[in-house]
Design goal:
Length: about 300
Amino acid sequence: MTKNIELPRPDVFATTVKIAPSDIARRRLAAWNGIRAESYEITRLQRFECGVTSPFHVLIVTERAERDEGETVVDGARKSTLRELSHKLTFVPAGRSFRGWQDPRILARGTYLYIDPNGPLLDPELRFSEIEFEPRLYFFDRDIWETAFKLRMQVENPGASNYAESLGLVLAHELVRLQHGTSAAPVLRGGLAGWQKRKVADYIEDHLNEDISLRDIAAVAQLSPFHFARAFKQTFGEPPHRYHMSRRMERAKTLLEIPDWSVTKVGMTLGFGETSSFTTAFRRTVGTTPSDYRRSIM
């Protein structure tokens, strides 16, 4: 095989996938507690190479890719020369190397997810850091795909950070389930206890003007973040981040009824640094802009 491009050796790789030449890809990165997500899009039809050796687990989500020629190698898995790569997943356990090259037939697009084996939000009962994960090259799992795609959307259209953290927890459990061939999540017998529900609801009402992490709100209920997220949804009918944003926008509606308050002032009062981010959140939750809502009630 003749290679036109030289990549650094794996032992000098950083913790993100290297693509060479570097200007062939458009990339966006977002980071939360225990997980990072990076979307990428190849911008021209030219041979490129990619590779990484990371202390994190790396899940590669290939949304769209076809190659005329190429090969991909993950330590511990068989080399692949597969040409149709769209809707495929590749899992590279922490410490393993991933390398590949291709002559693209179409402009590839996908997401790299970097998962900390010792993530601070992971349920200790999962023992995630102790699992010897198997490398997997070009496979498909619907549950993992759907969770990973939601994380990609958080890169492209950032929302509340605790939503992305919740998705990271779900993804960790799905990877354990895939490794063991069974469901990794413990059976939940009920939702929050009465005292937990009251304390959590009060805590959220007292923090409507700021982003709150899943870990902080779970601590109020004295539960691990993963168990709390499941119990919260069973009790309130929606995930914590969505409930918090819904309550936040209900407060916004009340403030918008004050004639002397501008949309900017309402947004700043609720912790939004920019009017545009407040408008986006309001439209996403309520279905209309703050200005249009105000006109409808005046």
